[in-house]
Recover the amino acids of this structure.
């Protein structure tokens, strides 16, 4: 099972997710890709062994992933303050991978029926969804 974790800006979400995924699923192949070097560095601090930065890394890694995880903005061009390029968003959206998207409202995307939750609850729900997928 190959998981691709994508994050941008300061990489705080990616760092917390990387730590949690590695802690709960040490056997999983986790690749972390940041939209910038700060986000990538944060995910490395979270324990990521496979990490890269930028548009091409997201495009290439999206092809081979079984699961893609990140804030909902990773499927919307120009989100994350413009860090998600149209090519990145298209690669993620067109990937055959199952996507687990965290409903972060900072991307100016709101989903009806979804209530705002603390980051800890979103991470726990993400881990539960991964567990369902690998069983």
């Amino acid at each position: 099972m190959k998981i691709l974790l994508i994050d941008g800006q300061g990489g705080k979400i990616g760092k917390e997710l990387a730590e949690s995924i590695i802690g709960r699923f040490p056997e999983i192949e986790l690749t972390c890709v940041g939209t910038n070097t700060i986000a990538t560095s944060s995910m490395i601090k979270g324990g990521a062994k496979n990490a890269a930065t930028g548009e091409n890394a997201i495009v290439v890694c999206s092809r081979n992933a079984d699961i893609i995880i990140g804030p909902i903005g990773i499927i919307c061009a120009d989100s994350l303050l413009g860090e998600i390029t149209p090519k990145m968003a298209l690669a993620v959206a067109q990937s055959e991978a199952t996507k687990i998207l965290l409903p972060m409202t900072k991307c100016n995307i709101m989903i009806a029926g979804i209530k705002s939750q603390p980051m800890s609850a979103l991470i726990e729900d993400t881990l539960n969804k991964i567990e369902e997928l690998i069983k």
